[in-house]
Amino acid sequence: MSGADHRTVPVPDGLSDERVDTGLARMFGLSRTRAAELAHDGLVRLDGRVVAKSDRLSAGAVLEVEIPSVADPLEVVEETVEGIGIVHEDDAIVVIDKPVGVAVHPSPGWSGPTVVGHLRAAGVRIATSGASERQGIVQRLDVGTSGVMVICKSEHAYSVLKNAFRRRAIDKVYHALVQGHPDPLRGTVDAPIGRHTRSDWKFAVRADGKPSVTHYDTLEAHRFASLLEVHLETGRTHQIRVHMSALAHPCVGDLTYGADPTLARRVGLERQWLHAVRLGFEHPESGEHVEYSTTYPEDLQQALDRIRDAV
Questions:
Q1: Which residue is catalytic, options 142, 171, 190, 305?
Q2: pLDDT for 119-167, tens place per residue?
Q3: Rounded to an integer, what distance in angstroms lies between the CA atom of residue 113 and that of residue 103?
Q4: How many C-beta atoms lie closer than 10 Å to residue 111's C-beta?
Q5: Strand, helix or coil for residue 292
Q6: pLDDT per residue over 240-298, tens digit each?
Q7: Which domains occur in the chain, in start order?
Q8: Strands 49-50 and 93-98
Q9: Nearest to residue 79, comparing CAs of 37, 112, 101, 125?
């Protein structure tokens, strides 16, 4: 919140005997829910007395209301974020190594740091194409997923790369440490993904979902888990996590999608073991194929080492 709007008005005759929340909504153009919240928070007074939402108004009484102003959840907050590394930068694009715990851009319900806010704070000019809170953004990584991603600086780069992602002409490679041993060791998951029927923050394989294709190859097989290289053909939200869970091999540490909490504790993970290791595409200016990669962050490397050492 930033400041508040204080209002003092006499109750008009037409609202006499109306409920407080109903009267507030009609006088100030608020929703009934918002008006009820103000009364619940003790921000509404009638002739100097704090009133509840269901109390009745009386004509001529002095109504005092304090309406806190709420920050726009999509406003980009310029803030330098520790841990964001610049992998490559030129006049067209900037490629970063995104750490865990950082969103790509602002969204309702998220109040933490963002990639867009960091780049603005660092003085990096970003393309103005796209919605205001995600200008220059052509791809996203989950807050809980780390790794390499590209942001566009020029309008031309945004147009070219946005189209490349749409045409699936981008090589997106992830490494995932999953529980158990997938059978077969190399394969493709072709299963549509949609929102979970009971949890709107989760996704699931659904017949009415959007087409989603994930290719995987086992790099290492250990006693409790396997390290996979994953190539995404599509780019649905939580795609790798949902598909691995559907195979009964969730990412280690991914408690949202069925991972074993005991194993997560044993390897010291507080998030899913998933990292975007490599990104390849035709450079929007030169047309040459470029490829950028990052190494595992410390928490994932330590967890992998513990899995390797398990006997």
A1: 142
A2: 999 999 999 887 777 889 999 999 999 999 999 999 999 999 999 999 9
A3: 6
A4: 11
A5: strand
A6: 999 999 999 999 999 999 999 999 999 999 999 999 999 999 999 999 999 999 999 99
A7: 4-68 (3.10.290.10), 72-167 (3.30.2350.10), 168-311 (3.30.2350.10)
A8: unpaired
A9: 112
Listed residue (161, 89, 169, 173) closest to 125, CA to CA: 89
Is 47 among the residues known to form the active site? no
Which residues touch 210 (CB under 8 Å, ≥6 apart)? 192, 193, 194, 234, 236
Q: Is pTM beyond 0.90 here?
A: no
C-alpha dist (Å) from residue 83 to 62, 96, 100, 254, 297:
54, 10, 9, 22, 10
Q: Answer yes or no: are the C-beta atoms of 179 and 262 closer than 8 Å.
A: no
Q: Which residues of 203-241 are buried (b: 16+ CB within 10 A; e: fewer)?
A: bbbeeebeebbbbbebeeebebbbbbbbebeeebebbbb
Tell me, what amino acid is at 30? L
